[in-house]
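Listing 4. Sequential folding, example run.
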Amino acid sequence: AGKVGSAVTAAAVHDKVLVLGTIGGTVWALDAGGNPLPNQPKPLHGGPVNCISIDVSGDFVASASDDGTVTLQRLSSGDVERYVFSRPVLTCSINPLYADKG
């Protein structure tokens, strides 16, 4: 499997997963053994990752970056939604019950 190999600038922990964001904009989702999950890592941002937030299901992850992007990633499928803002985004918070949205 791969190695992070770049400075970690953000991290979030869940019972199922450890998610790391790097200075280069890559987001890594790792299992309890430290192995990348399928579809990982993802180069989601063009700058340092400033924040990572995980919902209670452990399946949805939000990340924010200096490049003005916020991404929402579904770990089970690898699907990603990307939102672009005109300035650096320093923090993010996903609804804890995001997976339950109907």
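-- end of first protein; second protein begins --
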Amino acid sequence: MSDNEQQQTIEFESNELSGEEGNNNNNPINEVIGVTEEIKAFVKSVSFTNHSDTSFNAHIFIETLDGEKFTIQMTERGFQVISPRILSGAHGETLTGLLQEISPSFAEQYYAQLELKLRNLRRD
């Protein structure tokens, strides 16, 4: 791995993000961390490689709860599936939106959690 290439794995046991990077919202790495944190409850694993500290060019590696594996590229324009090849080129403005389109298991988990939150809001 080159000096400019950074690989991060989101740890599901800890929700803490610390250090200088956590305070800089314009840092592309923080953008990737943010979107991967958003989906972590609905996938088995998620990790990413960012090829630049100053621009968006990240590859996000996702394994869903039922074993589907996706490689998604994050750019300034949004998210695009790189792998599996059959879905290559599918894209979306948000990672959650793209995953809902390409992974029925992700969509099911995501909507179940959303429905639960809505029910809890109605009770309050």
